[in-house]
Fold this sequence. Notes:
The chain contains 13 helices and 11 strands. It has 292 residues and is an alpha/beta fold. A hairpin with a 4-residue loop joins strand 1 and strand 2 (54-66). Helix 5 runs parallel beside helix 7. The relative contact order is 0.13. Bound molecules: ligand C2E and magnesium ion (3 copies). One magnesium ion binds at residues 181, 203-204, 237. This is Bifunctional diguanylate cyclase/phosphodiesterase. Residues 24-278 form the EAL domain.
Amino acid sequence: MYEAKQRGKNCIAFADVISPTADGEDVFSIIKGAFERGQVELFYQPILSFQCNEIVGFEALARWRHPKQGILGPEHFIGVITHSALSLPYGQWLIDQAGRMAQRFREAGYQVLIGVNLSQDHIETGAFLEALSTTRTRYDLMTAPFLIAEVLESTHFHDLDLACSLLQEAHALGAEVALDDFGSGISSITYASQLPLNTLKIDRTATRHVDSRLDRQQFISGIIHMGHAMQRQVLAEGIESQAQLDTLKAMGCDLGQGYHIGRPMAEGELIARYLSSQHPTEATGGYLLCRG
Ligand code: C2E
Ligand code: MG
Ligand code: MG
Ligand code: MG
C-alpha cells in the first residue's frame, strides 16, 4: 500500500479529485487500473530553438484522461506512479511512447527530440538504459539522438558517480540529457557541472518577470553564461509572452518552452497542427519543425 507520507504535496490533489470515485478502492489500485486501461496518455509541448527559429523538440507530459473528471494533470497521479511498483513499467512505457513519436516525425522528414521526465529510480536502477536500447531498435532510431532524458534538479542521487556513468551511457543509446527545473531549488552547481548534460532547463519561476525585473535578468544571465562556459545549452521554461521571449533571446538563451510558443497538446492535436502542413500556420504559432 502506498504510504500517505510519501505522497507529499500530492495528498490534497488526490483527496480532491479521486476520493469521490474511490468506492473504497485505494489510490494506488485506482491509478494502476487507469494506467493499465490506457487512460494515462502523453501531451506534448513544443520546444523552440532561438537560433534557427524552428521547433526542435517536444516535452512529453503525463495526463490522466479520467472518465468522469476529464483531463487531470500529473500532480494528481505521477507521485503515486513513481513511488510504487508502477514506476518501472511506467518508465518503460514512457520511453517507448517517446520513441514511437520520434519515429513518426522522422518518417515525415523532421528531426525532433522527445523530452521525457525520468524518475530517480528508473535512472538509478539503470532500467532506463534497457528501455532506451529496446526502443531505439524497435523504432529504428539508430542514426541520431531521439530523446531528451530530463533529470530533476531536486533529485538526490545516492551515488553521483554512478548516476554520471549511467547518464553517459544514455548518450550512446540515443539520449541527450537535460537538468530540469534548474534555478527552482538548491540550483546544484555540482549537478550542473558534473552530470553529462546537454541542456540546463531554467524553471519557469525564474523565467517569470524576466522582461520586467533586473534581478531576474541578472539571475538568468548568470545561468546562461555559466551554462555556456560548461558547453551546455540553456532552455527557458514557462515563456508566456513575446516580451519574455524577446528578452531571453537577446540574452543569448538557446531554447524556449512555454504557453506563448505552444501549450501541451494531445497526440492527435499535435499531428493535426504540426504534421498536416508544410508551412507555418497560426496553429503552430508560426513555427516550422526542424528538418535537421
Ligand atoms: P516539468 O517537467 O517542469 O514540465 C513543465 C510544466 O510546466 C508542465 O506542467 C507544463 O504544462 C507547464 N508549463 C509549460 N509552459 C508553461 C507556461 O508558459 N506557463 C505555465 N504556468 N506553465 C507552463 P505539467 O504538465 O503540469 O507537469 C508538471 C510536472 O509533472 C512536470 O514539470 C514534471 O516534473 C512532472 N511530470 C509530467 N509528466 C511526467 C512523467 O511522465 N513522469 C514524471 N516522473 N514526471 C512527470
Ligand atoms: Mg520536464
Ligand atoms: Mg521543468
Ligand atoms: Mg518546471
